[in-house]
Amino acid sequence: MSKDYAILASGCFWCTETIFDNVAGVVSVVPGYIGGKIPNPKYEEICTGTTGHAEAVKIEYDTNIISFSKLLEIFFKTHDPTTLNRQGNDVGTQYRSSIFYKNELELNIAKKKILKLNESKIFSNKIVTLLEQESKFYEAEDYHKKYFYKNPTNMYCQLVVKPKIEKFLKENTNI
To answer: For the chain, which residues make up each domain, given as ranges?
Structure first.
């Protein structure tokens, strides 16, 4: 197995983690915080929107099964990359759409993907996903890990996460 990782932010990390947990070739998905200005942030601090961190996931994947480019396809299909600092009712910089690239290759792949999507007019508005140089990733508190699986009756999970996962699985039966 040849492993690599990607760090993506697309709103609530409970949704993003659960989606990528269901993708062939993904070895692990860890929710966390990245892109901010204070060390070792806590969820309560992130929620204020003042730390600069984004809720994100660190996806470890097998490059023999799935590519960084394919991860980005899934990323763009499973959230609205045209809304600035917002995903549905989740509003704030912590919910921004962002790709945290670790090298020029990832940056170029992301730029090309965004250009192609904008040219194709798949979205009615222009993509506002940020391309940010990877910085220190802080794992979220343990209670956030596998949150959807541990809290299936939570109202947010029922109203937001579950329908999003069901839609993803229905539309991506080959993943």
So the answer is: 3-171
User: What's this model's pTM, rounded to 2 decimal places?
Assistant: 0.95
- For residue range 120-154, what is the model confidence (pLDDT) as tens digits? 999 999 999 999 999 999 999 999 999 999 999 99
The residue from 12, 15, 47, 157 that is catalytic is 12
Architecture, CATH, for domain 3-171: 2-Layer Sandwich (3.30)
User: Catalytic annotation on 12?
Assistant: yes
Q: Report the phi/psi class of residue 23: left, alpha or beta, with left for phi > 0 and alpha for psi in -120 to 50.
A: beta
As a whole number, mean pLDDT of residues 21-34 equals 97
Reading the block at residue 41, the tokens are 């942030």
Residue 173 has pLDDT above 80, yes or no: no
Q: What are phi and psi of 102, to 5 degrees?
A: -105, -10
Give 89: exposed, middle or buried? Use CB within 10 Å, 0-12, 13-18, 19+: exposed
